[in-house]
UniProtKB/TrEMBL annotation:
Molecular-function annotations in GO: 1,4-alpha-oligoglucan phosphorylase activity
Quaternary state and interactors: Homodimer.
Signal peptide: none
Domain of life assignment: Eukaryota
Protein name as annotated: TYPH phosphorylase
PANTHER family per the UniProt record, alphabetical: THYMIDINE PHOSPHORYLASE
Family statement: Belongs to the thymidine/pyrimidine-nucleoside phosphorylase family.
Keywords, alphabetical: Glycosyltransferase, Transferase
Length: 287
């Protein structure tokens, strides 16, 4: 349902996206979208909110003061022209039925329904009019699917439907037996994604960001192979271009320029002051 996005012919072949089936501490999209844009891709990412026990990319970004997740198709095009990426939610124009089904799944014990997962993810990707898509299909104790076999079945479904829609689609099976990175929680995950965008952060987060990004750069022809794509994406993280793109994306989606700048250039204490904090906090130090 809804409308499909329209893009300039010059962008054909470079429109890419990534989608995850969800896990705990999964902040890959926050780092991957701007890194891909820094490498020359256009990333019109339509993302989701928390579902079941999994965190939502939109919820995490809304920890940044002023960040707007509701953009019109025209505003999305403007953001892609100026920045190269945006991360938005469903709207009355873009996959409106999915927003209804998304809410129903959360209260009808159908969060892990394979057909509904396939429809939910690919309805948004079809609306984006993508050239290439990579899917991060997670399995393990903290994923929707506990076993690699069940995750593989979902991956086959997603790839088959994606290819049928005319999108070059691939899937990566990744283990989710523990949180990705070190942090769990909206504002904390934004801060950890910023570490990754600076060329640091937890090794497992960087590994997944570069692996998924490398595949996409290869699929859209901006790299000669997945390993070459991974190296190019890693360079964007290390040389600061991905972080600069993230700052520009924040500004394009409503974050005041001074907040966006200080969030991307400040030290850890300064950043913590800028993002949303819980009114009650209690430390649980390791013994």
């Amino acid at each position: 349902t809804g409308r499909a996005l329209a893009w300039p012919p010059a962008w054909r072949g470079r429109l890419v996206d990534k989608h995850s089936t969800g896990g705990v501490g999964d902040k890959v999209s926050l780092a991957l979208a701007p890194a891909l844009a820094a490498c020359g891709c256009k990333v019109p990412m339509i993302s989701g909110r928390g579902l079941g026990h999994t965190g939502g990319t939109l919820d995490k970004l809304e920890a940044v003061p002023g960040f707007h997740t509701s953009l019109s198709p025209e505003e999305m095009r403007s953001a892609l022209e100026r920045v190269g990426c945006c991360i938005v939610g469903q709207s009355e124009e873009l996959a409106p039925a999915d927003r209804v089904l998304y809410g129903l799944r959360d209260v009808t014990a159908t969060v892990d329904s394979l057909p509904l997962i396939t429809a939910s993810i690919l309805s948004k990707k079809a609306a984006e009019q993508l050239s290439a898509l990579v899917l991060d299909v997670k399995f393990g104790a903290a994923a929707l699917y506990p076993t690699q076999e069940s995750a593989r079945e979902l991956a086959h479904s997603l790839v088959a439907v994606g290819e049928h829609l005319g999108i070059r689609t691939s899937a990566v099976l990744s283990r989710m037996d523990q949180p990705l990175g070190r942090c769990v929680g909206n504002s904390l995950e934004v801060l950890e994604a910023l570490e990754c965008l600076e060329g640091g952060g937890p090794p497992d987060l960087r590994e997944l960001v570069t692996a998924l990004g490398g595949l996409l750069l290869w699929q859209c022809g901006l790299a000669g192979g997945a390993e070459q794509g991974r190296a190019r994406l890693g360079q964007a993280l290390d040389d600061g271009s991905a972080l600069c793109t993230f700052e520009a994306m924040l500004g394009a989606q409503g974050v005041p320029p001074d907040i966006a700048h200080h969030l991307c250039t400040g030290d850890s204490p300064q950043r913590r002051q800028l993002v949303g904090q819980a009114s009650v906090q209690e430390e649980l130090p390791a013994p």
